[in-house]
Every structure is written in structure tokens, then in C-alpha cells.
Amino acid sequence: MKIKSLIIVIIVAIVGCIIYLNQNVTTQDQLVTLSGTTMGTSYHIKLAPAEGQKFNPKTIKAKIDERLSVIDHLMSTYKEDSDISKFNRAAVDSWMTVSTETMTVINEAQKISQLSHGAFDITIGNLVNLWGFGPTINIYELPDEKIIQALLPQVGYNKLEVQLSPPKIRKRSESVYLDLSGIAKGYAVDAVARLLVQNNIENFLVEIGGEIITHGHKQQQQTWVIGIESPVGGERVVRKRLHLPDVAMATSGDYRNYFEHEGVRYSHTIDPVTGYPIRHALASVTVIDRSCMRADALATAITVLGPDKGLEFATTHQLAVYMLVKQGDRFIEQHSSAFEPYLKAEED
């Protein structure tokens, strides 16, 4: 098997997002750029100081790094002492106390699972690992179908119980293994945005692993401009440029993180119903929402649902969704009615 998953820490914007920013400002109010690594990926932040505003970028970056470190140490499956890793080792039917932040993410994940009828599911970590996309297993052959079929009835969001106050969770099956990779980065984006506002910074763009939130504006009252990448292998081609005022955007796709075996591509996105990587023609899903955490999870859910069911889901729940669907050697665009205002802004 030839592994083609890209090294995640050098990806500027995973699964389809390229940030286009004006770099030609030479005044004292020029954009402040902060960057670093977190949660197995990179972050990039642009700050546009208000008129006359002064702050120390090193101080702000230190606060951001500290905030992200806390989140990572709570929700990572790669850290043995995280809330998630401790729970994954916990006994069946045993309540475990978790932090308020971890509970916030898990509770939202369960809501999206219910809304999508299980298309989004944080309990399928063992299936993710089995296919070689988790922290514990790196496979060189396809999983045994018997193992997949044995796991399926033992996992599922309905086998995770949540108690909000005090925050506790428990598993009803030994095979329940939480993986927050489809929602935690979105939460981290929201958390950094709140931190910046608390520090009186109102104009910014935050991107972590391709998940984005904007607030305020750039110089001269310009809106932040985000590019949606076309899923062309080996290239970065912008399909759409969106003007995004005070919203979050998340993109999910199968064209960056995958492997090939005997000429067949296997996506990192696992369908909780079948236990296998998705195989439909939906290549990229972009969701715009007020919450990046919610957009992150919804993008994954719609990716699992596929182009037809995904668009129906977006329409039913009035979600702003843009999709690229592979058709032969090209990609066709589909979007929900709630996404149209952002496309009109591009035309203007």
C-alpha cells in the first residue's frame, strides 16, 4: 500500500481553505501575523489593529499558545493524560468526570450526531484506528471485513452517555473509543476568537488546520477574503473567493488525507454506518456558521452523507453549504440556498 497522507504540520490550510490577505500595507496599522503549531497541525492568525491601538504581539501569541495547549491536552488522543485518552481506557459503565470544555465539545458532537442520524459520530475511533488514520495503528493492508462487522454493532453515539452537571460521561460498550478530530479544531478556533475579543482585539482572522473564523475587518474597512480550494491533486487552485464578515467556515474533503491500495483510494473519512471509508463522488464540503465548532462537525457529517443526501440535509436545516462533486475529470458545484448570499458577495 502506498501511503499518500500529507505531513499535517506543514499544511497551511487542510481540506480546502486558502487565506488571501493583503500583504502590501506599510503603515503602522499593518496586519500582524502570528503562526505556530497545535493539535497536530498549524495555525495562522491575522490581526488588524484598530486606529491608534497598540498591543504586544509576543504577549498575545503567548496567550494563544497557552490556550491551545490547554485544549489539546484535554481532547487529544495522542496524549495519554488527556480527558479523551483516559476515557478511552476507562471501564464500561463507569462514569468519568471530564472538564467543562471537554463536555462542551462532546455535548455539541452528540447534538450533531442526533441531527445527522449518526453521519457524524465521535465514538468510532476504533474504526478510524483500524483504517490507519488514528494514533494507535498504522496499517499496510486493508482491515479484515470480519473485524469491521464485529465492531459496527458495538460503536455508535447512542452508546455514549452524557451528564452535563457535573460533567461526566460513560461508555456502554468496550469498543467505544472517542475521537474528537472532526470537531475539536473548530472549538479551538472559537476559543482563540473569544480570547482575542477578551484582549480588546476586534479585527482578526483565525485559522487552525483549515478551520476559520473572522471578526471585524482588515484595513480600510475591507472584509476578510477566504478562498475555497478546488480539489485538484498536487495543486492549490482557488475555486471561490468569499467575503466573510463575522462568521466561521469549515471545509471537509477526501483529497488531502487518504491512502491508495491496488489502485483504489481510501479516504480518512469513515462512514459510521458501513465502517468503511466514504466512496461517493462528493470531494469537498464547505459550511459557514456562526460557530466554527458546529461548522467543523457539520462539514464532516455532510461529507459522510454524500452529495444528494448532504444537500437535502443542508436544505432541511437551512445550513449554508457549498459542495464540489466529482463528475468524470471535473468538479461541479452545488450549494444550498443559505449559501447564496456569500456567492453574491463574491460577484459584487
From TrEMBL:
The protein's name: FAD:protein FMN transferase
Q: Which residues bind Mg(2+)?
A: G182, D296, T300
Instruction: Give the first-level EC class, as a single word.
Output: transferase
Main location group: membrane
The compartments listed are: Cell inner membrane
**Residue ranges of the TM segments:** 5-21
Q: From the UniProt record, list the coiled-coil ranges.
A: none
Q: Which UniProt keywords apply?
A: Cell inner membrane, Cell membrane, FAD, Flavoprotein, Lipoprotein, Magnesium, Membrane, Metal-binding, Palmitate, Signal, Transferase, Transmembrane, Transmembrane helix
List the signal peptide residues.
none
Topology in membrane:
Lipid-anchor
Stated role: Flavin transferase that catalyzes the transfer of the FMN moiety of FAD and its covalent binding to the hydroxyl group of a threonine residue in a target flavoprotein.
Q: Name one GO molecular function term.
A: metal ion binding
Q: Which family does it belong to?
A: Belongs to the ApbE family.
